[in-house]
Amino acid sequence: MHNYTGTQLRAVLIHNAAGGQGPFELTEDKLEPQMAISHFGPFLFTKLVTSKLLGAGSADYTPHVVFVSSASEGYSWAKFTEILTAAELSCRAKGRINAYGLHPGAIFTNIQQREESIKFFKAAGIITADGRPNPAVPFEWKTIPQGAAITVAASLDTRLDVKPGTYLWDGMAANDKMSANSTVPPGEGGGAMGAYG
What span is annotated as the signal peptide, if there is one (predicted)? Predict the structure, then answer.
């Protein structure tokens, strides 16, 4: 793919959707909302555009697919599946698409301010009683631009191409920061992504 000036365009797909915390419920389609928003929707969309991504690759460029996950992947199935999906997509694409799961950092956004999320985040001590970021949490809060920079790095940094399927933390390969439940050995897809194979 080239634009009108002849400069090569980059084919990048970023999945950044997330559902807020709240009581368990099911959608009209009998799906849990966080899984529908964070996994099923991105999975289906990726499947629908895979041929376009494959067609955008070249000898010197591999398209990137980025799944914005979270450090919460150890207990949130929705975030856990994003990491596994990135690893499996990279494995099944056999070097023609590189996918990454990443933790953008703890960022105070509107998701912590949603009515159904406030109770959860307050109980977890992530936000204070007045609804602001808790400075006493054991992690450093990032600004929205800082978190976005990590996503941009995963999208465009070709130095990551030697580690497809990798989990990223602060823009660097950090599989050691994943929970044991999220670990997929490099090159060993778990078979859950048959739609891509």
Answer: none
The answer to whether 64 touches 14, Cβ cutoff 8 Å, is no
Q: What is the dihedral of CA 63, 161, 197, 89, to 10 degrees?
A: -90
- Please state the φ and ψ torsions of residue 123, each to the nearest 5 degrees: -60, -35
**Does the residue 6 lie in any domain?**
no
Q: Which helix (H) or strand (E) holds 118?
A: helix 115-123
Across the chain, mean pLDDT equals 78
Domain containing 74 equals 12-111+137-182
Query: What pLDDT, in 10s, does the model give residues 120-173?
Result: 778 878 888 888 888 887 777 888 899 899 899 899 888 888 888 888 877 776
137 within 8 A of 144, measured Cβ to Cβ: no
- Number of Cβ within a 10 Å radius of residue 149: 16
Q: For 20, which DSSP code?
A: P
